[in-house]
């Protein structure tokens, strides 16, 4: 059985709600990442969202806001999704499809241990499931 742990990018890089978008962008550039989970330091560092490079551009830069003062909490929205490290690859697929997420944090013992992107999942799904996964994730592509 292939698990989330088998296909994830290991490592736990995250920012807090109060970190600036400039700091987030610098970390993304430094680590070659497209997204960072956001933790709420007032709630025992629980994940409260995910910020993407696109969020920074669309919700800050394009609106003429200053990334040096705009906080992660200003742009995150919705309920963060995650998957247990021991979850089966099909559970990963269903979580990403059902919630239309392209990156999924992997959690073990209440701590983030890695991240799965749509690319990692696609590379590890059986060939006959890849097109169906893409069609669910990108409904306009149908």
Summarize the structure.
With 142 residues, the chain is an alpha/beta fold.
Structure description:
With 142 residues, the protein is α/β, with parallel strands linked by helices. It has one domain (4-137): CBS-domain (Roll). It is 36% helix and 23% strand. The protein contains six helices and seven strands, in the order αββαββαβαββαα. The protein has helices spanning 4-7, 21-31, 53-59, 89-99, 118-124, 127-137; strands at residues 9-10, 15-16, 35-40, 46-52, 83-84, 103-108, 111-117. The strands form two sheets. It has a four-stranded mixed beta sheet. Helix 4 (89-99) links the parallel strand 5 (83-84) and strand 6 (103-108). The radius of gyration is 15 Å and the shape is globular. It starts with a helix and ends in a 5-residue tail after the last helix. The model has no long low-confidence stretch (mean pLDDT 90). It holds the Pfam family CBS. This is CBS domain-containing protein. Residues 8-67, 75-133 form the CBS domain. It comes from Actinomadura harenae. Keywords: CBS domain.
């Amino acid at each position: 059985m292939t698990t989330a742990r088998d296909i994830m990018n290991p490592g736990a890089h995250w920012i807090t709600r109060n970190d600036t978008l400039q700091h987030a962008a610098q970390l993304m550039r430094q680590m070659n990442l497209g997204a960072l989970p956001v933790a709420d330091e007032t709630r025992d560092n629980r994940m409260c969202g995910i910020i993407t490079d696109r969020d920074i551009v669309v919700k800050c830069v394009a609106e003429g806001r200053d990334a040096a003062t705009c906080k992660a909490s200003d742009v995150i929205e919705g309920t963060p999704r995650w998957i247990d490290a021991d979850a089966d690859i099909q559970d990963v697929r269903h979580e990403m499809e059902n919630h239309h997420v392209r990156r999924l944090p992997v959690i073990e013992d209440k701590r983030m241990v890695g991240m799965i992107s749509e690319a990692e999942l696609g590379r590890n799904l059986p060939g006959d499931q890849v097109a169906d996964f893409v069609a669910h994730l990108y409904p306009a592509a149908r």
